[in-house]
Specification:
The complex is a heterodimer of chains A (114) and B (112). Chain A is an all-beta fold and 114 residues long. In chain A, strand 4 and strand 5 form a beta hairpin. Helices cover 0% and strands 59% of the residues of chain B. Chain B is built from no helices and 11 strands. In chain B, strands 2, 4, 5, 9, 10 and 11 form a 6-stranded mixed beta sheet that branches. Chain B has a 5-stranded antiparallel beta sheet with strand order 1-3-8-7-6, with no helix packed on it. In chain B, a hairpin with a 2-residue loop joins strand 6 and strand 7. The chains are: A mainly beta (114), B mainly beta (112).
C-alpha cells in the first residue's frame, strides 16, 4: 500500500514555457505532500510543503511565483515550473506522508530545459 | 537552521567488505532519523529510528541512533554489488507529517 504515482518521468521543454508535474496518491489520502529538487550528485532539497486545500509553504530561497504548487484534492498535488530556464533543469520528486507507512516517494521527474 | 551531515561523501569497497556510514544532525525539535537508499530514481525506505541505543536490523543492514551525541550509523555487512547506491539519512521533526531534512548523502560503490 501507499503508492505515489508521479508523471511525467521525463520531460524536455523549451526555455520560457511552463511544465506541470503531477503526483497522485493511489491508495491513500495524502493530506500533506512535499516537493523536492535534486541536482546531480547532490541530496534532496525541500522546495515546499503542500497541504490539501491550503496554500503551500515554501522553503527559504524558493520562488513561489516560479514554482506553483496546487494541492486541490486529497489525491493530487501538482508542481508547475513557470517560464522555465535551463537552470531549472533538475530532478523533481514528490513525497507524501502516508500515516502508517511513513513517507512514500514518487518516482521523480527529470526536467530538461533547452 | 536544521543541518544533517553525512560522511564519507563517497566510498568504494570490495564485495564482501563491511561498511559504516555516518550521519550527524543538528535539528530543532528532533523526533526521528530515517535512512533511505537511492539508486536511480525514488529513495527507498530502510529504517526509521526514534529511540536511542536500539539497533534496527534488516538482513545485512543495521542502524542505530545516539540521541546524546546526535548521530546515527548505518552498517552494511558482506556488501554486494547490488548495494551500490546513494544512502541518504534524513531527520524528522516532531509533528505527525513534519518535513524531512536530508543529509548530503554517501555514494557507495561496491566492486567485484
Amino acid at each position: 500500500g501507499a503508492v505515489v504515482s508521479q508523471h511525467p518521468s521525463r520531460v524536455i521543454c523549451k526555455s520560457g514555457t511552463s511544465v506541470k508535474i503531477e503526483c497522485r496518491s493511489l491508495d491513500f489520502q495524502a493530506t500533506t505532500m512535499f516537493w523536492y529538487r535534486q541536482f546531480p550528485k547532490q541530496s534532496l532539497m525541500l522546495m515546499a510543503t503542500s497541504n490539501e486545500g491550503s496554500k503551500a509553504t515554501y522553503e527559504q530561497g524558493v520562488e513561489k511565483d516560479k514554482f506553483l504548487i496546487n494541492h486541490a484534492s486529497l489525491t493530487l498535488s501538482t508542481l508547475t515550473v513557470t517560464s522555465a530556464h535551463p537552470e531549472d533543469s533538475s530532478f523533481y520528486i514528490c513525497s507524501a506522508w502516508t500515516g502508517d507507512y511513513g513517507y512514500t516517494f514518487g518516482s521523480g521527474t527529470r526536467l530538461t530545459v533547452v | 537552521e536544521d543541518k544533517v551531515v553525512q560522511s564519507p561523501l563517497s566510498l568504494v569497497v570490495h564485495e564482501g567488505d563491511t561498511v559504516t556510514l555516518n550521519c550527524s544532525y543538528e535539528v530543532t525539535n528532533f523526533r526521528s532519523l530515517l535512512w533511505y537508499k537511492q539508486e536511480k530514481k525514488a529513495p527507498t525506505f530502510l529504517f526509521m529510528l526514534t529511540s536511542s541505543g536500539i539497533e534496527k536490523k534488516s538482513g545485512r543492514l543495521s542502524s542505530i541512533l545516539d540521541k546524546k551525541e546526535l548521530f546515527s550509523i548505518l552498517n552494511i555487512t558482506a556488501t554486494q554489488t547490488g548495494d551500490s547506491a546513494v544512502y541518504l539519512c534524513a531527520s524528522k521533526a516532531a509533528g505527525t507529517a513534519s518535513k524531512l531534512t536530508f543529509g548530503t548523502g554517501t555514494r557507495l560503490q561496491v566492486t567485484l
